[in-house]
Amino acid sequence: MNHAVEINHVRKVYRVGEQKVVALNDISLQIPRGEVCCLLGTSGSGKTTLLNLMAGLEKPTKGTIQIEGKSIEKMDEQRLAEFRQRYVGFVFQSYNLLPSLTALENVSLPLTFRGMKKQLRENAALDLLKAVGLKRYATHKPTQMSGGQQQRVGIARAFVGKPPIVFADEPTGNLDSKTTHEVMQLILEMAKQNNQTLILVTHDRSIAAYADRVVYILDGHIEKIEINHEKYKGENQ
Q: How many CA atoms does the CB half-sphere of 106 hold within 13 Å?
């Protein structure tokens, strides 16, 4: 089976003054391509640290991390930046939209970094805004949109470059229950369209229910992994 993510015996230690704090200890995990995987744990469990390692935002103290067959722990900062631009999309809890830019400009940012011509990237961004139901908000700035609308813009930005993997860190943490369901359905639908791997980080078990695989993180190690057999069964019928 082809894996989007292969993690082997990863350990992450932070130095706080003269003390060493073990954030992750002996983590090994494989995530198949096209799967929805949820890292579930309470605050301080290590789940966000694990996401940061997979996304190339931090480096492990020990162990290996392969993303789409590439050993990212060996990359320097320039290669990591290029890797993230090409292979990774992010959806954030706090939206992380640039307030001075319109929705269209925010969505097209990843394509700007890739050097795509303006007309092509604006066309692609407009297509994604249409897909998330916000085409008429293309010229609006974040302050002119609701939280749910801003998160939809963030989702469009994460998917516009069609990266193989999308990371979503507490993507519905600032949303009400109705908007949460709508946003989750949207993220899942967009990932499925392009067979993208989706990795969710959350403390919320109701969000974990959307995943094919749930990885329970506790005190820096994997406590257990559950496969959602009912979801697989439904998709294969």
A: 30
Q: Is 97 in a helix, a strand, or coil?
A: coil
- Domains of the chain plus CATH, in order, are 35-59+75-236 (3.40.50.300)
> Which two structure tokens, joined as six digits, stand for 23?
């954030």
d(CA 88, CA 145): 26
Q: Which residues pair with 22 in a beta bridge?
A: 13
Q: Report, as ranges of residue numbers, the positions in the chain whose pLDDT lies below 70.
A: 1, 230-237
Helix axes 147-159, 177-193, angle to 10 degrees: 10
- Round to whole Å and give the CA distance between 160 and 157: 5
Q: What pTM does this model have?
A: 0.89
The pLDDT value given to residue 173? 85
Residue 11 vs residues 3, 22, 64, 69, 125: alpha-carbon distances, Å: 21, 8, 9, 20, 38
- pLDDT tens sequence across 91-145: 988 888 999 999 999 999 998 888 889 999 999 999 999 999 999 999 999 999 9
The pLDDT value given to residue 171: 87
**What is residue 116's DSSP assignment?**
-
Distances (CA, A) of 98 to 91, 94, 105, 116: 14, 11, 9, 20
